Amino acid sequence: MQNSTESSVFQKAIESVEMLPVDDQLLLVEIINHRLIQHRRTELVAMVAGARESYRTGNVRRGTVEDLLAELEEQDE
Q1: Distance from first CA to last CA of the chain, Å, rounded?
Q2: Is residue 47, in this structure, part of any structural domain at all?
Q3: 18 CB contacts (<8 Å, ≥6 apart)?
Q4: Does the structure show a pLDDT above 90 at 1?
């Protein structure tokens, strides 16, 4: 949940964008979208690197879907 300061900053940002010409607003949306995609890509690269490191050091378990479900059921008990 956002506090009033965050909401105020967010509202000011929206108002600032609305003051731009429509073409600039569209360009801004495109730029933000590309940055979000890049941010997510960076997160995924870090996650894959972490998974590879866990695999390399033997900190992973192997099994079937049935093994996983059985383990999850054991944890619920």
Answers
A1: 34
A2: yes
A3: 25
A4: no
Tell me the per-residue pLDDT of 51-61, one tens digit each, with 9 for 90 and over: 999 999 999 88
pLDDT tens figures, 30-68: 999 999 999 999 999 999 999 999 999 999 888 899 998
Confidence of residue 14 (pLDDT cuts 50, 70, 90): very high
Amino acid (1-letter code) at residue 67: D
Rg (the chain; Cα; Å): 22
In a domain, 49, yes or no: yes
CB 16 within 8 Å of CB 25: no
Domain holding 49, by residue range, is: 21-76
The number of folded domains in the chain is: 1
Position 48 in a domain: yes
**35 domain residue, yes or no:** yes
Amino acid occupying residue 41: R
